[in-house]
Design brief:
Oligomer: single chain
Shape: globular
Number of strands: 2
Helix content: over 70%
Strand order of the largest sheet: 1-2
Strand content: under 5%
Length: 218
């Protein structure tokens, strides 16, 4: 009887675990603002919402595909060469992604410039491969990478939204603010990216601290 109850509980526990792996990357471990990882593309390509979204989705695809591949072959990779193997896997997927963008969306590919090939060096991807995918089965690895990638994409979209609307008065290239608005030139410059990043990190930390305080009081 006890065995049957335990077996009945396993699927629920597994579902909760998979849900946690997905959700943690959306807030608890959101890469740009909590882990402070992947800052190069976050600062460099988020002068518009479209660029931020495109870079986020490209990174999301590479992250999920790389983590899935490493999880599948993790038992076949010798520990001594695992980092080199990771780099080869990431580089292959990044190359496919870059060629796809060049063929299907040349304008976006040109706007993102060298930052798509530089996904190879993104510390978020190598970090998730080393910390999670090489130790866990395929499904948890997919959920972990999916949550991390969506959280990273959300961070780039948030920065792209603020910088474009304040720097150009537009969203996705469509003018939102009228002639009365004077664009903040600083928001489309590197200085604006650093200022906004610092402000968003502070905001996320403030919200997290407030949530922790409320939880302790409860």
């Amino acid at each position: 009887m006890a065995d049957s109850v335990e077996k009945a509980q396993l699927p629920e526990e597994e579902t909760q675990s998979l849900s946690y792996e997905l959700v943690k990357g959306l807030w608890q471990d959101i890469a740009p603002f909590r882990l402070v990882l992947g800052l190069c593309p976050a600062l460099a390509v988020t002068n518009s919402l479209l660029n931020g979204l495109s870079m986020g989705l490209a990174t999301l695809f590479v992250l999920v595909a790389s983590c899935t591949a490493v999880s599948i072959v993790r038992k076949l990779i010798a520990p001594q060469v695992r980092i080199a193997a990771y780099v080869v896997i990431i580089a292959t997927i990044v190359t496919v992604t870059d060629l796809f963008l060049q063929a299907m969306t040349p304008g976006i590919s040109k706007a993102l410039g060298p930052y798509v090939p530089l996904i190879i060096t993104n510390c978020i991807i190598l970090g998730r491969l080393e910390a999670f995918s090489q130790k866990n089965p395929v499904l948890p690895s997919i959920m972990d990478s999916l949550g991390t990638g969506i959280g990273f994409t959300f961070g780039l979209v948030a920065m792209g939204f603020v910088r474009e609307i304040l720097g150009f008065g537009s969203i996705f290239g469509f003018t939102i603010l009228g002639d009365w608005f004077t664009p903040w030139i600083v928001m489309i410059l590197p200085a604006g990216a650093f200022l906004l990043m610092g402000g968003l990190i502070a905001l996320v930390n403030y919200i997290s601290h407030k949530q922790s305080s409320q939880g302790e009081e409860a």
